[in-house]
Automatic annotation (TrEMBL):
Protein species of origin: Plastoroseomonas arctica
Stored SUPFAM superfamilies: FAD/NAD(P)-binding domain, FAD/NAD-linked reductases, dimerisation (C-terminal) domain
A GO term for molecular function: flavin adenine dinucleotide binding
Protein name, per record: Dihydrolipoyl dehydrogenase
Residues reported in the UniProt entry to bind NAD(+): G178, G179, G180, Y181, I182, G183, L184, E185, E201, G270
Catalytic activity of the protein: N(6)-[(R)-dihydrolipoyl]-L-lysyl-[protein] + NAD(+) = N(6)-[(R)-lipoyl]-L-lysyl-[protein] + NADH + H(+)
Length: 464
């Protein structure tokens, strides 16, 4: 007789596995279904973790090749690349993380049901044919990459991020379609390892959701690193041959076509909610026009007892957003008041320099006619950044003109992904720019640039 549970979570990505752990911590009898051979979802297996491992390794290669000499660290002879070792290390990092989740499941007594989960009725889920009963179901089935008509992904010549993380040789020319998170992170990896990289982007800017000024600076800095950009351009077709791929490009607004050849093409034009084979539609769960599960503020679908979190619902497709929702829904199921503050979710592009953002952009403030003040501070004027020889970029803080409350913050610069945490915290606490400006920051530290940007909001930066 199969078990019954208080909660069955379908999918073990950052949303699902964190939800399962929190639910178990709160005393709910919990199972998590995963059809992959390992736990951790897209993020741990083919997303955040392997990409960060390769970004780290490729940055070391870049340093050895181009940056250490400036510090007087001379490497005799040429620096060579052992890509097989780099890829193997990436695999070790992934395994350590996926095994870590397995350990946490055991520690917290979460049952891992291995196989494909299917909702057969409200309160009933089957896993590869075995049916389980449960008081609550949490859908956390994540997302998949969006295909482009005319381009057949084979994960060898035309790859998604999954194939783009697995290349066994550095391509001579990598063409990336889409100048967003994946395109710029993986484009940076392969550029540093020696590929020529061209990014074809439909819009007139990179990472379109980010603050425009930061986006433009990002384009300049990556351009200086040698990445080529074809903005306002669309790909209309591809022809494969053993030598490579010939892409047909056209101006986004239409016009004369041209061709561009590549050894490898990385398709990174966004991701879409994934719910194939889940049985949710058949169980009556409502979806929106973009295939996302529709939920209310408490992550409940229209079917009692069925909830959804993470990439499969609306909002930024980010691991930490999914995790926050996982905790919140577990707490709600345990009778508590879990909630997520969507106004303070950071986004980070882990290139070098990194780009980090939280809250509203200047364009969003203008669009809603919000009176605001801007404070900016460049890393060229930060002592620690100079010591690191990493002075590209700046901190930008946007504050309410009347109340001085921080409305948004945008950083391009060394370790921006860590620096942004202070500003996320400030926003969580409803802090003003003055609060940050009056907080003592250690010297010499990169986050003094945050303090200086906060001072600059009222025109009183000290070091510029
Ligand atoms: P997922 O992680 O997608 O997990 C869903 C899981 O559900 C999968 O393992 C899938 O196999 C399983 N599943 C689906 N259907 C079923 C079923 N019927 N039965 C059983 N199992 C099922 N975000 C960041 O915040 N930081 C980053 O640095 C970052 N880097 C990324 C890099 C890349 C290359 C990619 C592709 C994504 C990256 N992301 C990053 C995004 C991040 O991976 C996602 O936002 C996050 O994984 C979403 O978590 P989730 O739990 O909603 O779903
Ligand atoms: P994205 O949404 O970040 O970027 C896609 C880009 O492709 C956009 O700039 C868009 O304008 C462009 N585009 C769309 N259609 C196009 C077309 N036909 N031709 C040319 N360009 C086109 O999506 P991406 O990079 O695929 O990543 C998916 C998601 O995964 C991200 O939005 C993010 O949520 C998550 N992610 C997060 C990371 C992080 O947190 N560091 C890293 C990688 C992914």
């Amino acid at each position: 007789m199969p078990d019954s549970f208080d909660v069955i979570v379908i999918g073990s990505g950052p949303g699902g596995y964190v939800c399962a752990i929190r639910a178990a911590q709160l005393g709910l009898k919990t199972a998590c279904i995963e059809k992959r051979a390992t736990l951790g979802g897209t993020c741990l297996n083919v997303g955040c973790i392997p990409s960060k491992a390769l970004l780290q390794s490729s940055e070391h290669f870049e340093e050895a090749n181009h940056k250490l000499a400036e510090h007087g660290v001379m490497i005799g002879g040429t620096v060579s690349l052992d890509l097989a070792r780099m890829q193997a290390r990436k695999g070790e990092v992934v395994t350590a993380n996926t095994k870590g989740v397995e350990f946490l499941f055991k520690k917290n007594k979460v049952t891992w049901l291995k196989g494909e989960g299917r909702i057969t009725a409200p309160g009933k889920v089957s896993v590869d044919g075995t049916e389980y009963e449960t008081k609550n179901i949490v859908i956390a089935t994540g997302s998949e990459s969006i295909p482009l008509p005319g381009l057949e992904v084979d994960e060898a010549q035309i790859v998604t991020s999954t194939g783009g993380l697995e290349l066994s040789a550095v391509p001579k020319h990598l063409v990336v379609i889409g100048g967003g998170y994946i395109g710029l992170e993986l484009g940076s990896v392969w550029k540093r390892l020696g590929a020529e990289v061209t990014v074809v982007e439909f819009l007139d800017r990179l990472v379109p959701a980010m603050d425009l000024e930061v986006g433009k600076a990002f384009e300049r800095i990556l351009g200086k690193q040698g990445i080529k950009f074809r903005l306002k351009t669309k790909v209309t077709g591809a022809t494969k041959s053993p030598e490579g791929v010939t892409l047909t490009l056209e101006p986004a607004e239409g016009g004369a076509a041209e061709t561009l050849t590549a050894d490898v093409v990385l398709l990174a034009i966004g991701r879409r909610a994934y719910s194939e084979g889940l049985g949710a539609k058949e169980a009556g769960v409502a979806f929106d026009e973009r295939g996302r599960v529709t939920v209310d503020a408490k992550f409940a679908t229209n079917v009692p007892g069925i909830f959804a979190i993470g990439d499969v619902i609306t909002g930024p497709m980010l691991a930490h957003k999914a995790e926050e929702e996982g905790v919140a829904v577990a707490e709600i199921l345990a009778g508590q008041h879990g909630h997520v503050n969507y106004a303070a979710i950071p986004g980070v592009v882990y290139t070098w320099p990194e780009v980090a953002t939280v809250g509203e952009t200047e364009e969003q403030l203008k669009a809603r006619n919000a009176p605001y003040k801007v404070g900016k501070f460049p890393f060229t004027a930060n002592a620690r950044a100079r010591a690191m020889a990493s002075t590209d970029g700046f901190v930008k803080i946007l504050a309410d003109k009347a109340t001085d409350r921080v409305l948004g913050a945008h950083i391009i610069g060394p370790d921006a992904g860590t620096l942004i945490a202070e500003l996320v915290m400030a926003m969580e606490f409803g802090a003003s720019a003055e609060d940050i400006a009056r907080t003592c920051h250690a010297h010499p530290a990169l986050n003094e640039a945050v303090k200086e940007a906060a001072l600059a909001v009222d025109g009183r930066a000290l070091h510029i």
